[in-house]
Amino acid sequence: MRPLAFALLAVAPAFVVWLLLSSEPPPAPPRATSGEDSIARARIERLEAEVETLRGELDRVRSEIAALRGAILATAPPVGPEGKGVESYLDEYVRSFAAGAGGSEYFRLVVDAYAPALRDAILRSIGDPAAPVALRASLIGMLARAEFKGDGRVISALVDLLRTEPQLAQAAVKTLRAIGDARTGATLEAIAFDLPQPAALAAAFAAADLSVDGPNAAVARLLARAPDSLRGPLVGMLRGGDDANAVQALRDASRMDVPVRLAAAKKLGTFRGDPFRRLAEEWLGRETDAGVEAALRQALDQQTKVPNWHALKMTGPPDATPATQDNPNAWAAREQDKGPEWVELTYDPPRRASAVRIFEVYVAGGVVGIETVDESGTRRTVWKGTDPTVTPGVFEVAFAATSYRVRAVRIILDTSKRTGWEEIDAVELLGPDGRAWASGASASSSYAQG
């Protein structure tokens, strides 16, 4: 066991880092809003400075976690203890639970590092009903990594656990949300309310994230089948970027019990646009609860105001200065570093185009594609590639002048490319018919809508 002890000493200083990243990240602190007094602004500036420090720490931790995995693989070679293969590390980890304790931290780290090679063995252990629940839950968590994204065998095994092992349901849903595909989303949507709480709500959230036709469509369907206790949280899952399904879900909720109606009326105030205003006005005409009526009136009042970081902040010329700072006059996604997001800008009147200028704020470099939408709704990709913008500024993309008139431009981002919030202040359309700023905007998500 000497090599084993040496390996343990080699990686022990990084255990704290590993444990930090294995837990859920803390929620982002409140972001600044306009109109605050000088004392509040000073406090917020200090908070923002602390957030920047934490982001730097997170980058450092991510680097250390990558180095830790490399160190583990170097100190725990694939021959395994006593000359056996890597499965012997999993055997040792399983045996470490024999005394009823939480298992060996060292062998947990080694098994996690070798998880791709140990996939089948891990699945066998997870499916063993005689194995300790803590062991099985730990192994399930090891499957929530990019190498298993869309892996049919892993997904099928976890879905089977959902149906047969209530004590493992929440761990299985969490991993399925990370590695599942559209088919997984449909399965979770179908079985969500057959699961025990809190796995049922977690499954509904995962189903919305993975839905092939978008989260709002999934929420609208789930809302019709959900127990009353889950309908309020489901309404809270509605997001910007899909107005038709959001309106439908809110309209359905407006005819449910008072707690659900109140949640829906408050959520209505986070959306903007004529369909939401008309729904609020129509709903007010039939609402009988005073609390819900007050929330609806507030939602109508909010229709005249654009919340900070809302998609509509991208309309008109740029006004988020300085571009190097987090700015409520720019759009920001609901979560940072989440991955794929999109924003869509509309132009009135439509016009032929040959270039797009994107005013990037705070964190730049996340644009991966640009599409144009003509007057008939046809989408065409005019650019795909790597955004070279290193510091916040203007990213301009030129393309052959369109023969059709552009009604909208969709910008596709990968917000995981850089740490922090990708923000967009404005998008200018250029071409043979002149220049134009957007008159309308929507997004896959918005920080303003939570």
Helix content: 40-55%
Oligomer: single chain
User: What is the CATH superfamily label of the domain at 311-449?
Assistant: Galactose-binding domain-like
Strand content: 15-25%
Let me know the number of strands.
10
Average pLDDT taken over every residue: 84
**CATH architectural label of the domain at 311-449:** Sandwich
Write structural notes for this entry.
The protein is built from 17 helices and 10 strands. By secondary structure, the chain is an alpha+beta fold. β8 and β9 form a beta hairpin. α4 packs antiparallel against α5 (105-113). The protein starts with a helix and ends in a 7-residue tail after the last strand.
Briefly summarize what is shown.
With 450 residues, this protein is α+β, with helices and mostly antiparallel strands. It has helices spanning 2-11, 15-22, 38-75, 87-95, 105-113, 119-126, 133-142, 152-164, 169-179, 182-191, 199-210, 215-225, 228-235, 243-253, 258-268, 274-284, 290-302; strands spanning 331-332, 340-351, 355-362, 367-374, 379-384, 394-398, 406-414, 422-431, 434-437, 440-443. Among the domains are: 2-82; 213-305; 311-449, Jelly Rolls (Sandwich).
